Amino acid sequence: MRKVLFIPLILMGCSLIPGGGKDDPVVSSRGSVCGDPTIKGEVVGEFPGPGGCGVTSAVRVRSVGGIALSQSSVMNCETARTLRGWVSRDMTPAVGGLGGGATGLRVAAHYACRTRNHQPGARLSEHAKGKAIDIAAIQLADGSEISVLNDWGKGRKGRVLRDLHRSACGPFGTVLGPESDRHHRDHFHFDTADHGYGPYCR
How is domain 65-201 classified at the CATH fold level? Predict the structure, then answer.
């Protein structure tokens, strides 16, 4: 009798096992990345840049937790997972049924090889390492949005924004908003920097 050897088929570039490291990009057969089926995108891999810029294991994210990003955003997996957690745990419930519910994030910036606040001689921004994303607004099902620039400090939308700013502090290492400085009057800056003393939130 002939013995039949069953060998599991492994799809190239695909895995059902979550990545072990913070920056390990893992793709599922459904087009997910970072070992999370709710983070949709594609693996970029090595994303080099000059003078200390670049991402070791980059992914390009299209959506997190069912919420679309207005532009596909390059980041590492730690940042993608942190964003997905905040969206699912905090953002979506906080918005609730306002405007029919949240459908998207208007992304102001993601990976960019630059210094902090574009200031000459300043330290490299976390954007230059794939650890940051800037969010200008939450897009709603009825076509309207909750805008950091237009709604901060105003009515129900302003209260939602303040709650979201607060809830991001901790999951993200840095959270900056309109009350931090003039550079952030129109967006939230979230990054996964480890400051060694806890999160920095303003």
Answer: Muramoyl-pentapeptide Carboxypeptidase; domain 2 (3.30.1380)
* CA dihedral of residues 114, 78, 152, 122 (deg, nearest 10): -20
CA-nearest of 189, 12, 11, 41 to 110 is: 189
Measured CA to CA, the distance from residue 22 to residue 173 in angstroms comes to: 14
- pLDDT > 90: what percent of the chain? 73
Instruction: Provide the CB-side half-sphere exposure for 39 (13 A, CA).
Output: 28
Mean pLDDT of 14-19: 36
Greatest alpha-carbon span in the chain: 78
Q: Where in the chain are the domains?
A: 65-201
Please check the confidence at residue 30 and state whether its pLDDT lies above 80.
Answer: no
Q: How far is CA 4 from the centre of its chain?
A: 47
Q: What is the pTM of this model?
A: 0.85
> CA-based Rg of the chain, rounded to a whole angstrom?
19
